[in-house]
Amino acid sequence: MKKHLIAALAVLMLLFGVVGFAACKEQSTHKAGSSWEHNELGHWHVCTECGIQMDFSKHTAGEVQTDGVEDWTQCTMCEYEMLRTVHAHSYGDWKAEVPATCSQPGTKGHYTCSSCKKNFDAEYKEIEDLRIPAAHSYGAWVEEVAATCTKNGTKGHYTCSSCGKNFDAEYNVIEDLSVTASGHAYTCLLYTSPSPRDCS
Ligand SMILES: [Zn+2]
Ligand SMILES: [Zn+2]
Ligand SMILES: [Zn+2]
Ligand SMILES: [Zn+2]
Q1: Do 30 and 49 meet the contact criterion of CB atoms below 8 Å apart?
Q2: Which pLDDT belongs to residue 195?
């Protein structure tokens, strides 16, 4: 009885063994898992049937990636991260300043790193904002010329040397600089005898 059991077990084990072996006997019968396994040397698939390592190859470096502090690359096959190094900026050519006008913002002179796309000034310090705000060139304040009885005066103002517009002390545009002549200030006197007296 016991002998039979052992024999049956042996047959069973053999059967499983043979079936298991038969599934992966030939190279072509291994079934590669869908995901890559990897270490620092390379990547490979694992057979889903027998667990054997297959398709081993060395990593293939992809494009260099950067966050502006470090550079690295990933294997194009298994995305293993490799070759992490300190980022060195590639400044390229100096781009000259584009001056702002009265209505159009300008651009500061700068270098751009071709790799991380950050911008830098002439001393290689990073520039966050390249824009130069649009602004008038106000120049010196011109004092008011007071109006007289007969002659118009001129309001105090700045004149933009670029667009020629005039501005008050708060930099608001003044359309008309002139101060109208005040005219004569007549005093009403009643000519009465013996001496003139005031109307009021
Ligand atoms: Zn296999
Ligand atoms: Zn890889
Ligand atoms: Zn850079
Ligand atoms: Zn202007």
Answers
A1: yes
A2: 72
pLDDT level of residue 7 (50, 70, 90 thresholds): low
Question: Cα(193) to centroid of ligand 2, in Å?
Answer: 120
Query: Lowest mean pLDDT: which of 25-29, 42-46, 116-120, 166-170?
Result: 25-29
Give which of 174, 146, 145 is closest to 158, Cα–Cα. Answer: 174
How many angstroms is it from 138 CA to the middle of ligand 1?
82
* Bridge partners for 154 per DSSP: 145, 178
How does pLDDT run across 94-134, given as a tens digit for each residue?
A: 999 999 999 999 999 999 999 899 999 999 999 999 999 99
Residue with tokens 């019968």: 29
Q: Where are the beta strands (DSSP E) in 95-157?
A: 106-107, 111-112, 119-120, 126-127, 131-132, 153-154
CB neighbour class for 127 (10 Å; exposed up to 12, middle 13-18, buried from 19): middle
92: left (phi over 0), alpha (psi -120 to 50) or beta: left
- Residue 16 parent element (H or E): helix 2-23
| Ligand 1 midpoint to CA 20 (Å) | 9
Distance from Cα 130 to the centre of ligand 3, integer Å = 16
Mean pLDDT of 164-186: 87
Residues 6+ apart with CB under 8 A from 190: 196, 197, 198, 199
* pLDDT above 80: residue 183: no
